[in-house]
């Protein structure tokens, strides 16, 4: 339970009345909680969609994005911007990691965030409440997969304990649970989950080739990018 709460308060802005002392090992054990936390986020997003069901799609999409940002904050978006700045810099591994560690945002980071919000805006306008509810769950399932199969790219830093704790079976089990739930509840969405996983695998392989591994920023980038990929894949291949 402590691991769950620690993960909840770290990757979201959902308040918890008790302050827990950070412990890297305890936090890493909360890896399993990431998709569960995604359910809470998804329920809030789908709830807003239901409340605003009489509004035009553009208004619904905008408000859902606002609610998402209120719940999650900018942690993963910061990772996405840093990842874009580093991975598209065309530099060596060490220089990529150095660029990603810079607190300033560059042009590729700005482009990445613009594309992200545009993708979210378009995807949310054309999605059912089931797809919206699942978006944060699928994204965080992909994050567990990347953590399980990835290796840490630096000597030390944020995310090291989590990535070193993760094992391939973590990703496989969480993905299997997700597919099982979809098979019972919404089998038409399974193909989009599989396509999203394939995209995640390719992203992990390419990132590892460029950087020699992954970092906390890469995890954030995977969460946000696969969330958009999931929404748009429904539009492109159906579900």
Description:
- The chain is an all-alpha fold and 239 residues long.
- The chain has one domain.
- Helix 3 packs antiparallel against helix 8 and helix 5 packs across helix 7.
Mean pLDDT: 94
**C-alpha termini separation:** 35 Å
- Our estimate of the beta-strand percent is under 5%
List the domain count as a whole number. 1
- How many helical stretches? 12
Let me know the largest β-sheet.
Answer: none
List the uncertain runs.
none
List how many beta strands DSSP finds: 0
Molecular shape? globular
Give helix % range.
Answer: over 70%
| Gyration radius, in Å | 17 Å
Order of helices and strands: HHHHHHHHHHHH
Structural class: mainly alpha
Task: Write a concise synopsis of the structure shown.
This protein is an all-alpha fold. It has helices at 2-11, 24-28, 33-51, 57-72, 75-87, 93-100, 107-125, 129-149, 160-165, 168-185, 190-211, 216-237.
Features:
globular; single chain; mainly alpha; 75% helix; 12 helices; 239 residues
